[in-house]
Amino acid sequence: EAAVTQSPRNKVAVTGGKVTLSCNQTNNHNNMYWYRQDTGHGLRLIHYSYGAGSTEKGDIPDGYKASRPSQENFSLILELATPSQTSVYFCASGDLGRSQNTLYFGAGTRLSVL
Amino acid sequence: GDSVTQKQGQVTLSEDDFLFINCTYSTTTYPTLFWYVQYPGQGPQLLLKVTTANNKGISRGFEATYDKGTTSFHLQKASVQESDSAVYFCALARTGGYKVVFGSGTRLLVSP
């Protein structure tokens, strides 16, 4: 069964601090994604990756960096966290071929920036 | 760019009512269309998808028809149950593309 694991599940950060959200997938999917979910906006794409070593900007990349050091791992980095980045973040994996673009999501990370 | 519109923020029904959730999309190519469902405390999961225009997707009593003419992909269910209470997202992906674009979601509340 497809498995995407996010850590931490909850995080409280201070304004100006650095935050790293981690994601691991055991699906052997090529593509990985970071979305944030906010009421009224649904799921918005921050960064995505085609494979190890690649990162691409999504629709709302400002204030975020991403890192894909391996097929299994994809991190989202907030170098200088701001209160506007308080949200629920979801990681997902997918594959054009085998999953036909179906995304498999993790359980989410709730981030509060104070 | 590609976009998905869900105008209903929340739908409130009683058990055994008919469900209709509106979804329209905009794209310059031929997309795959999806409905995802998100239960409380979980990430979204695929409910159904349709890759070909004018085809219908069916899953767990839910159905949606990919209507290229009206650029719609409305979700329907004949008789909802309390366990269907969740947030429903409509989404699209371009054929051969990597990005998946989501609508703003519709929260369904079903009372017993």
List the helices and strands and how they pair.
The complex is a heterodimer of chains A (114) and B (112).
Chain A (H helix, E strand, L loop, with lengths): L3 E4 L2 E4 L5 E7 L5 E8 L3 E8 L6 E2 L7 E3 L7 E4 L8 E8 L9 E2 L3 E5 L1
Parallel strand pairs in A: 2-11
Antiparallel strand pairs in A: 1-3, 3-8, 4-5, 4-9, 5-6, 7-8, 9-10, 9-11
Chain B lengths: L2 E3 L4 E5 L4 E3 L2 E3 L4 E8 L6 E6 L5 E4 L2 E4 L9 E3 L8 E9 L5 E3 L3 E6 L1
Parallel strand pairs in B: 2-12
Antiparallel strand pairs in B: 1-4, 3-9, 5-6, 5-10, 7-8, 8-9, 10-11, 10-12
Question: What does this 3D model show about the protein?
Answer:
The complex is a heterodimer of chains A (114) and B (112). Chain A is mostly beta strands and 114 residues long. Chain A has strands spanning 4-7, 10-13, 19-25, 31-38, 42-49, 56-57, 65-67, 75-78, 87-94, 104-105, 109-113. In chain A, strands 2, 4, 5, 6, 9, 10 and 11 form a 7-stranded mixed β-sheet that branches. In chain A, strands 1-3-8-7 form a 4-stranded antiparallel β-sheet, with no helix packed on it. The termini of chain A are far apart. In chain A, 39% of the residues are buried. Chain B has strands at residues 3-5, 10-14, 19-21, 24-26, 31-38, 45-50, 56-59, 62-65, 75-77, 86-94, 100-102, 106-111. In chain B, strands 2, 5, 6, 10, 11 and 12 form a 6-stranded mixed β-sheet that branches. In chain B, strands 3-9-8-7 form a 4-stranded antiparallel β-sheet, with no helix packed on it. In chain B, strands 1-4 form a two-stranded antiparallel ribbon. In chain B, strand 7 (56-59) and strand 8 (62-65) form a beta hairpin.
